[in-house]
Every structure is written in structure tokens, then in C-alpha cells.
Amino acid sequence: MQKKSKLLGEIGGIILALSIIPYLSFFSIVGILLLLIAYYFISREFERKEIFSNALWACLIPSIFALITGIIVAIFITSTIISFCFSTDLSDFESIFFSGKMINFYILIAILWVIGWIISIVSTKMWKKANTIIAEKTSESLFSTAGNIIYIGRWLTIVIVGYILS
After folding, report:
1. Cα–Cα–Cα angle for 15, 19, 25, nearest 5°?
2. For residues 37 and 104, what is the distance between their CA atoms, to the nearest angstrom?
3. 8 Å CB contact between 142 and 113
């Protein structure tokens, strides 16, 4: 493996790991971009386009879902606030949070959370595929092990332990 791709991957991984520190989460974008560049160089070196393809889709699918989810939630919250302002007595705080509109919002959030969890599993499966191909080409089993740990960690996110692994 070229030193350039290895160095980019190492720096990207370190920056991505630092993104869990509060106020440093914006580093995650930089870390992911560096990792993607490293995967691109590795896929070109081994002439296996599916390495970069899997890594790229593993990043794009959750990003697109997050964007769509943000738009849906923003529209729902805005329309709910506007309708409450024109139709409900805002002095009754309890009736606002347990009204039919808010119950629908809570159900929407739960459904989006489940869909997001499934999408994150699909995404980590793609990372695992990319890492498995790299492990086969380099004879370095740590790539495969890293892919497995991330994949298992994502399945365990339903339990808090998974956030630590992934």
C-alpha cells in the first residue's frame, strides 16, 4: 500500500476519533473526507473500484437520510408551531405536548429513528465490505477485524454499548 494512502487513512481515522469530543464534532467531516481519499487511492492501487464505491456509498446514504430527515422534522415542527399559535390557548402547557399533533410528531421521530438505525447498519455493512476487500488484497487481517467491530458495534447501538464500539 502506498505511504500516501496509508498516511491519509491514519490521519483521517485519528481526526474522526477526535470528533467524539464535544465542540470538536465538526472534525468528523474532515476525517471522513480524508478516509474517503485514502480509500480512493487504495482502490486505484489494487484496481478494485468496489473499495471506493462501498466507502463512498457508506458515507452518502446516511448523509442523504440525515438531510431528508432534517427537512421533514423542520417542516413538521414549523407547521405544528404555526397551527398551535393560531388555534390553541398556549397557557395550557400540558395540552400542547400531549395533543394529537404532538403525538403524531413523537411517532414520526420514532419511525425516523428506526429507519436511521437500519440505514446505519446498511452503511456499516458497506464499510465492512470495503475493509474486507482491502484485507484480502493486503493480507492484513486488521482491516477485516476493524470492519467487523464497526459492523457489530452498529448492531449493538440499540444497546448503549454499541456507540462505544462504532
Report:
1. 125
2. 42
3. no
